[in-house]
Write the C-alpha cells for this entry.
Amino acid sequence: MKWFQLPLGALQTNCYIIEGPDQSCLIFDPGSEGKKLIKWLTKRELKPKAILLTHAHFDHIGAVDAVRDYYQIPVYIHEEEEDWLPDPALNGSKYFAMQEMLKVKKADYIIKQEEVMKVGHFEFSIFETPGHSPGSVSYYFKEDGFVVSGDALFKSSIGRTDLPGGNHKQLIKSIHEKLLFLPEETEVLSGHGPITSIGEEMDSNPFLNGF
C-alpha cells in the first residue's frame, strides 16, 4: 500500500492519499484546493472510496464538498464534531481573515467509538485522540506501519490547544495512551509539516518529556 502527502491551502495542511493495490484510494483531510486534488487523482487514475477526517477545523475540510460531489463518496467524522462542518463558528473559518466562511455538508458516516474499520480493501483502526479538538481521531494502518495523526502529534511538536474545545492535558494523555504505545518504527503522517516516527518523537519531542 502506498501513501502520498499533498500540502494544500494557505496553511499547507497535509492531505493524504492512501492507495491500494487496485488503484482504489482513501482521502484524508482534503483541506483546500479541490480542483488541484481532483486533477492529481485523475492524472494517476485513482478511484477514491471515501473521505476520512481527523477533525473538522476549516483547514482540514475546505475541499470536502468538491471532492465528495465529484466522486460521489462518503465522508467520515467523529460524532463530537459532526455539527462543525456546516458551522463557520465551530470549524473556525469565521475567525480566520484569509479564509471564506465554510459551510460544508454534514458527514455521511459518524464515528461513535474506537473500532477496526473496513472501507473497500482498506482495513485500519480508529483511535480517539482528543485534545487539539474534542473529536480528533487518528487512523492506524497496522499492516503498513503508519498512523494518520491529524493535528495531535507533529515532528518535534504537538497540536495547539488554545482553540475552542482544546485541552492540553487531554492531548498529552491521548498521545501517551493512544500513539506512543505503537511500534517505534511506525510512521506518523501529521496534519502539518514533515513525516516523523513514534520512536523519533519518544526520543526528541520536547513536549513529551517523561514519556
